[in-house]
Amino acid sequence: MLTVEDDEFWKGVSPVEFGSLPALQDAVTVVGYPIGGDTISVTSGVVSRIEILSYVHGSTELLGLQIDAAINSGNSGGPAFNDKGKCVGIAFQSLKHEDAENIGYVIPTPVINHFIEDYQKSGEYTGFPILGIEWQKMENPDLRKAMGMKSDQKGVRVRRVEPTAPESGCLQPSDIILSFDGIDIANDGTVPFRHGERIGFSYLVSQKYTGEKAHVKVLRNSKIHEFNIKLATHKRLIPAHIKGRPPSYYIVAGFVFTVVSVPYLRSEYGKDYEYDAPVKLLDKHMHAMAQSPDEQLVVVSQVLVSDINIGYEEIVNIQVLSFNGTPVKNLKHLAAMVEECDEPFLKFDLDYDQLVVLETKTAKAATQDILTTHCIPSAMSEDLNS
């Protein structure tokens, strides 16, 4: 939430009014200051699609409007108005593809209102809750039969349950979710939405607030079970944001250890990190689930060259699996183990079956000289000291 310090700013300013969710083919006008000039730009089009979209900046999936008005770099954050002059959303991304023309996306007012009400309720942004599962469509009749579903039963199959999610206490793999808050889920994972439209059932989940409960009906071994599940936000193994904090790091003998996050991948590999980053890190980013709330993916970010680490210079962005035989939970855990180590050698087991071995005394003694050479004030970030 942004504001200004001087109340004079608001004098004579009329706030924009939010309108309701538009229908397909409704006219929209996007206003902003995109590239191509310095003055205000107004482009118009119609709503061509309403569905659950992948939000690039938030790494989440929420309701979105697809429009055919031109949206370019600089339009993001600009309002989209309906023909009555009410704001129906905020422009935020477009589809850049050789086969696509004028496909822009708008965050609709229900999502904006959810954010505002969430802030008013708790004094901070708590996020959009999710159902902590991965699911599979049940459109195949043989699959439905094998799962013990009757001809009049519809739903989706639970593939995996996130260990850190509240759902892990009640939902199990191969459960069939029949309904969410009393609304039946179809075999393709959709639910009724307005007149004659359907939408992914995650829309129902995103309407809730963090900490609220939902009533879920499940088919398990041909028996129906009902659960009241407390909804929570997503705990990603590789977080989408570091919330404005400086990155965590730990240095010993020139080895720079850090935590993998989406901002880190973007800084290392650019905006196309999903194509250029190491396959194993991307696999963890896309598919791995955190086994505990404090789990982090720790890597050797780089090696600051010194006599002590000769031969290890080419180790870059490789995951640290264990230290002296103990699996690494997170960066703080690794730093504590290294600092307290009184064994003769520091042994780091890395991904791809790589092994790093350093003599404990000489490695720790060399660390300060390496920090001085590279003008680094501390061997670890402030958050690891606390």
What report would you give on this structure?
There is one protein chain. Helices cover 19% and strands 31% of the residues. It has helices at 109-122, 141-146, 202-206, 262-269, 273-276, 279-287, 331-339, 360-373, 382-385, and strands spanning 27-32, 41-55, 60-67, 79-81, 87-94, 104-108, 133-136, 156-161, 176-180, 183-184, 190-193, 197-200, 213-220, 223-230, 249-252, 255-259, 298-303, 318-323, 326-327, 345-350, 355-359. The strands form four sheets. Strands 15, 16, 17, 18, 19, 20 and 21 form a seven-stranded antiparallel sheet that branches. A six-stranded antiparallel barrel has the order 1-2-3-6-5-4. It is globular, with a radius of gyration of 25 Å.
The share of residues in helices is 10-25%
The strand count comes to 21
Whole-number mean pLDDT: 93
Poorly predicted ranges: none
Q: What Rg is obtained from the alpha carbons, in whole angstroms? A: 25 Å
Summarize the biggest pleated sheet: 7 strands, antiparallel
User: What sequence of helices (H) and strands (E) makes up the elements?
Assistant: EEEEEEHEHEEEEEHEEEEHHHEEEHEEHH
Shape estimate = globular
Query: Distance between termini?
Result: 29 Å
How much of the sequence lies in strands comes to: 25-35%
Number of helices: 9
Secondary structural class: alpha+beta
